[in-house]
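Our consortium's second objective concerns turning raw sequence data into structural hypotheses that experimental partners can test. To show how far this objective has progressed, the report includes one record in full. It was chosen at random from the queue rather than selected for favorable results. The single chain below, 208 residues long, was entered without modification.
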Amino acid sequence: MTDLADQVRENKASSPEPSIGFLYVITHKNANEMVKIGITQRPEARMRELDAETIWARVLCFDPRRQEQELHKHFSGKRLPGTEWFQIKPGSKEFKVLLNKVEKIGKSAMALCTLNNNETVLDQLQRITSLEKRCEELRQENALLQSSKSKYLQERKILKDRIQDLEGQSNNEAKHWHNSTNWNVARGSTRNRLFMISSFISKRLKGG
């Protein structure tokens, strides 16, 4: 019997569609009375791209395209034409049926891996999921660092502007003091010269 991992690689090589992936059910903040039924091999990144408000289900499955198509067919009466969105309100009867079907698909995939004792596939998928989560954590950390950097640059600019204002005030005060001192010196010199002239005239008049 061919190893399950070999089958997976053969299927990937012969078909553009992935033979293993994640099936998900989400709602969006702007459409919380509808759900999206889709598949992906990048669960964390895909949820971020879709701006998902709530992830109601996300399970590993084999032949995800077929699983997705079967769900789309089952709920075709609720489907918005040309989209993967369905008018299924969370908590409704149809919603519970949908989650039950998705859960069964996930359990079947795990049971198949266990039955074939194929730890390699499980390990790979768990590693992919772990890497996805780590990438998301790094993205959030990077966003936090960018925010901190932006805040630092703003505070630095405010401080720089404040220093320039203080330097400007200091220069103006120095100029004012300098001009005031020169005026006082000049006024004192004029007063002295007038006193000397007055004394000279007074002496001449007395002597005359």
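The partners drew two points from this record. Residues 143-208 form one domain. Residues 1-5, 7-18 have pLDDT under 50 and may be disordered. Both points have been shared with the crystallography group to help prioritize constructs.
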